[in-house]
Amino acid sequence: MGFSYNKLWKLLIDKNMKKVELRDKISISPNTLSRLSKNEKVNLDVLGKICKELKCNIGDIVDYIDDDAGGDSK
User: What is this structure's pTM?
Assistant: First the structure.
């Protein structure tokens, strides 16, 4: 199971905001921003803060990636 935050980065570009600006506005650690950049899991509270700051829904910033979507392992 994986996640992609590509939508978040595109949204930041549309809003002319840098990753560091977002980090500072919502008071998250550099490590959390790094995990987002690497498409790693983050706390749901972090995603909530991002949605509140950017005035969007969670589906606007993250996609679920099904690791098994490639086919069967029969």
Answer: 0.85
